[in-house]
Amino acid sequence: MKNNTFQTHSHSIRGQALVLLLIFVGISIIITTSASIIMAVNALTSTTFQAGIETHGIAETGAENAILRLLRDPNYAGETLTIGSDHATVIVTGAGTKTITSVATSGSYSRTVTVTAVINSSGVTIQSWKQTF
């Protein structure tokens, strides 16, 4: 009778160990999956942020180029400036006070920079420079 009790107790301990092992494996899988998802989201966010910064830089370049062109030719009305595979469309409006709008497109990203400047014989005076959404 004592031998039978010992075998039942031994099977019970093995069953408890198996249940604990399954719980630990399940928790490990959940932690690993969560970490992988967080890494993937972080990589996507970083890529999107970097693309936005690059597109903003292209829009700034278009606005700066327009200011240089206006200094050389006050009748400059704009152009499409190609930078690598990306481009900035620059439009200049106004007579005395010029409004320069540079819209950059890079893939599916778009950024707009608007500059208000006065161009006269003594040079250029920037009144405002802002990114518009």
Looking at this protein, list some descriptive labels:
133 residues; Pantoate--beta-alanine Ligase, Chain: A,domain 2
Structure notes:
By secondary structure, this protein is an alpha+beta fold. It has one domain: Pantoate--beta-alanine Ligase, Chain: A,domain 2. It is 53% helix and 35% strand. It has 1 helix and 5 strands, in the order αβββββ. The longest helix is centred in the N-terminal third of the chain and has 71 residues. The N and C termini lie far apart (84 Å).
Give a summary of the structure in a few sentences.
The chain is an alpha+beta fold. It has one domain: GSPII I/J protein-like (Pantoate--beta-alanine Ligase, Chain: A,domain 2, 2-Layer Sandwich), CATH 3.30.1300.
Strand order of the largest sheet: 1-2-3-4-5
Write out the CATH superfamily name: GSPII I/J protein-like
Question: What sort of overall outline do the alpha carbons produce when their principal axes are compared?
Answer: rod-shaped
Compute the separation of the termini in Å.
84 Å
Order of helices and strands: HEEEEE
Number of helices: 1
Q: How many strand segments?
A: 5
Q: Determine the fraction of residues in helical runs and give it as a percent range.
A: 40-55%
Give a topology summary:
Elements: H1 2-72, E1 78-83, E2 86-93, E3 97-106, E4 109-120, E5 123-132
Antiparallel strand pairs: 1-2, 2-3, 3-4, 4-5
